[in-house]
């Protein structure tokens, strides 16, 4: 549930930021009468995203075991692609997103009122569909069917509260830093989702090695312990993974995390140079 909460918080905050920017622009430019078209676009995007999530769940329920495993594997890999693209895109766009959205909205106003609804719809629906796929993929590893819904609801609710507070200027947070660190956590979540996908392919018989384990640490990481459940739920770190699952987790998680954090490592302050002669003065 914690991983799904993080997905809801991250994706939800992106959506609320987009909406708050559009609303603030219209209000500050004395075009408040056009807000109804923004909300119409947002509502249509939300309904489509919810319908898409329900369609994923309903479609999977009609499949055989092998087909369901393949379907879940494809959903997992699609989610990994989406989250990877999203975190790198947001790292690049976080600082100039507001200016770009205002420019697009100004163009939409010139076209007509329903163009505003269309722009709001397109701005929100991409995040909504991503959230649906990520939610479906991450929910496959949960035992309790209520936990994913609770997690995503709490995450989205937190995002809405933060978005409202930002809009009202009651709080100020460094969004670039927020998206950087939540992005790093989501890389590890995506590594776990990628591992789910490989496991589903092994369950369906597409990949071999379902009984070939890389290691077994159930003695120090009991599956029923709360910390084992937290690691499994957040990052899909399990005490008895297969060799292919381990290769998948490490093969995705390590290089993507390094690439994502590389700009931070380059910007890290270098240690001050030692004054000349300091080493020989002693």
From TrEMBL:
Q: Which residues cross the membrane?
A: 6-27, 34-58, 70-90, 111-129, 149-167, 179-198, 247-265
Q: Does the keyword Ion transport apply?
A: no
Alphabetically ordered keywords of this record: Membrane, Transmembrane, Transmembrane helix
Main localization category: membrane
Its record classes its membrane topology as: Multi-pass membrane protein
From the Swiss-Prot or TrEMBL record, state where the protein is found.
Answer: Membrane
The organism's place on the tree of life at top rank: Bacteria
The family classification in the record reads: Belongs to the oxidase-dependent Fe transporter (OFeT) (TC 9.A.10.1) family.
Q: Which NCBIfam families match?
A: EfeU
Entry protein name: Iron uptake transporter permease EfeU
Q: Please report the organism this UniProt entry assigns to the protein.
A: Dactylosporangium cerinum
> Which gene does this sequence derive from?
efeU
């Amino acid at each position: 549930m914690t991983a799904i909460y993080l997905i809801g918080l991250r994706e939800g905050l992106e959506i609320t930021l987009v909406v708050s920017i559009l609303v603030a622009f219209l209000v500050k430019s004395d075009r408040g009468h056009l807000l109804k078209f923004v909300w119409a676009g947002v509502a249509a995007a939300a309904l489509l995203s919810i319908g898409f999530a329900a369609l994923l769940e309903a479609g999977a329920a009609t499949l055989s075991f092998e087909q369901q495993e393949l379907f879940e594997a494809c959903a997992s890999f699609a989610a990994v692609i989406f989250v990877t693209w999203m975190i790198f895109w947001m790292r690049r766009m976080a600082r100039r997103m507001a200016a770009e959205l205002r420019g697009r909205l100004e163009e939409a106003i010139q076209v007509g009122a329903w163009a505003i609804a269309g722009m709001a719809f397109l701005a929100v629906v991409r995040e909504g569909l991503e959230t649906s796929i990520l939610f479906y993929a991450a929910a496959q590893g949960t035992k309790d069917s209520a936990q994913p819904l609770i997690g995503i609801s709490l995450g989205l609710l937190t995002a809405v509260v933060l978005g409202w507070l930002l809009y009202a200027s009651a709080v100020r947070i460094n969004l670039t830093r927020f998206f950087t660190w939540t992005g790093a956590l989501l890389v590890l979540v995506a590594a776990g989702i990628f591992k789910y996908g490989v496991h589903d392919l092994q369950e369906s018989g597409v990949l071999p090695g379902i009984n070939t384990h890389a290691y077994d640490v159930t003695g120090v990481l009991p599956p029923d312990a709360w910390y084992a459940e937290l690691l499994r739920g957040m990052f899909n770190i399990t005490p008895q993974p297969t060799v292919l699952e381990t290769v998948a987790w490490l093969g995705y998680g390590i290089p993507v995390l390094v690439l994502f954090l590389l700009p931070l490592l380059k910007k890290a302050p270098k240690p001050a140079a030692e004054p000349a002669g300091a080493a020989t003065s002693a």
